């Protein structure tokens, strides 16, 4: 596969929407469609299911996505290293994030860091919710800003960077959208759309509980990518937790989404990889509080985002 084919396929696999994919890549929508059709003809198998209402990965498409993600990361890092060498950069700090709100924060922090540490560069990388702490444990990242709670013995927690009100993302017309508030117990009346992968069980239980506090089971649909959550909720398949800042990023026309506010704040923390302490230090990991907040639900109707993040790091060589 050519690099442009890999980028087109993986971007569509994330967005599950041809127009948004073309906007991200800066290509005509027809060009993206032609690239995907060309790949499908070459491989002799459909990679995406397409209807007039939605796009979804086929089993073959999911397998190709999972196999290509490490390849894309390796190519990106090779290009980054070459560019850094050309600019005379001596060290590169790799920082992960899991939401657009955190990306904004990191971009501002990176500008300050570069000014204080000439010769050092900061590269930020998106971490998918299903990957959890895989990238930082593998050494691909030195710091990670991620959703809490985080209770891992090999990770050192930094301070809470920001907090946002919790929301429950619901389809337009859902019974919950007409309520002034909903409780955790009410989730037994609907289906929860959950992102699941290699996250710790306690993290999954906090964000996507399987039972109410009263012990009633909560039906669920499991998926891998956040964009798949948005599509499933927008198509009326269920509800999913989010945070308030999402309205700035995911309130696209045609989504068909609303949200009911959840009680409490979702905290965004930093986690530091202890094994990388000799690398450039952006000053985000000096305090190491532990734990996370409680999550109830109550609410007002608004538009959503995914659960809020925390800053993490890995111990070890």
Describe the structure.
This protein has 317 residues and is of the alpha/beta class. Among the domains are: 1-87, Orthogonal Bundle (Arc Repressor Mutant, subunit A); 165-265 and 294-308, D-Maltodextrin-Binding Protein, domain 2 (3-Layer(aba) Sandwich), CATH 3.40.190.10. The protein is 33% helix and 24% strand. The chain is built from 9 helices and 12 strands. It has helices at 3-15, 18-25, 29-43, 59-86, 100-116, 134-137, 201-207, 226-234, 247-250, and strands at 48-50, 55-57, 91-97, 120-126, 143-147, 156-171, 191-195, 219-223, 240-243, 257-272, 301-302, 309-312. The strands form 4 sheets. It has a 4-stranded mixed sheet, with helices on one face. α7 (201-207) links the parallel β7 and β8. The longest helix is centred in the first third of the chain and has 28 residues, at 59-86.
Query: Helix content range of the residues, please?
Result: 25-40%
The main pleated sheet reads as: 4 strands, mixed
What would you call the shape? globular
**What structural category characterises the helix and strand content?**
alpha/beta
- Distance from N terminus to C terminus (CA atoms, Å) equals 35 Å
Instruction: Write down the secondary-structure element order.
Output: HHHEEHEHEHEEEHEHEHEEE
**Beta content:** 15-25%
Rg, Å, rounded: 20 Å
* Quantity of strands, as a count: 12
For the largest sheet, list the strands in their spatial order. 4-3-5-12
**Which fold name is given in CATH as the topology of the domain at 165-265 and 294-308?**
D-Maltodextrin-Binding Protein, domain 2
Number of helices: 9
What is the name of the CATH superfamily of the domain at 165-265 and 294-308?
Periplasmic binding protein-like II
């Amino acid at each position: 596969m050519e690099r442009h084919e890999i980028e087109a396929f993986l971007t569509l696999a994330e967005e599950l929407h041809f127009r948004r994919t073309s906007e991200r890549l800066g290509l005509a929508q027809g060009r993206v469609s032609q690239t995907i059709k060309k790949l499908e003809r070459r491989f002799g198998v459909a990679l995406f299911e397409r209807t007039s209402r939605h796009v979804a990965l086929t089993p073959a498409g999911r397998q190709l996505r999972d196999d290509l993600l490490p390849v894309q990361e390796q190519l990106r890092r090779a290009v980054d290293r070459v560019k850094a060498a050309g600019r005379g950069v001596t060290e590169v700090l790799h920082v992960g994030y899991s939401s657009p709100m955190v990306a904004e924060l990191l971009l501002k922090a990176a500008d300050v860091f570069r000014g204080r540490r000439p010769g050092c560069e900061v590269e930020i990388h998106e971490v998918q919710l299903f990957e959890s702490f895989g990238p930082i444990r593998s050494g691909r990242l030195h710091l990670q800003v991620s959703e809490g709670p985080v209770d891992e013995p090999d990770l050192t927690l930094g301070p809470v960077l920001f907090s946002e009100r919790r929301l429950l993302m619901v389809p337009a017309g859902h019974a919950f959208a007409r309520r002034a508030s909903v409780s955790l117990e009410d989730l037994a009346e609907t289906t929860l759309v959950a992102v699941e992968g290699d996250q710790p069980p306690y993290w999954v239980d906090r964000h996507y509980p399987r039972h109410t506090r009263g012990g009633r089971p909560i039906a669920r649909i499991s998926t891998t990518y956040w964009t798949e959550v948005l599509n499933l909720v927008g198509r009326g398949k269920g509800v999913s937790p989010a945070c308030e800042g999402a309205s700035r990023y995911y309130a696209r026309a045609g989504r068909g989404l609303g949200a009911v506010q959840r009680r409490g704040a979702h905290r965004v923390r930093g986690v530091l990889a202890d094994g990388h302490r000799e690398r450039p230090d952006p000053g985000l990991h000096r305090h190491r509080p532990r734990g996370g907040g409680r999550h109830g639900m109550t609410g007002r109707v608004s538009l959503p985002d995914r659960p809020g993040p925390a800053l993490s790091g890995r111990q070890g060589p």
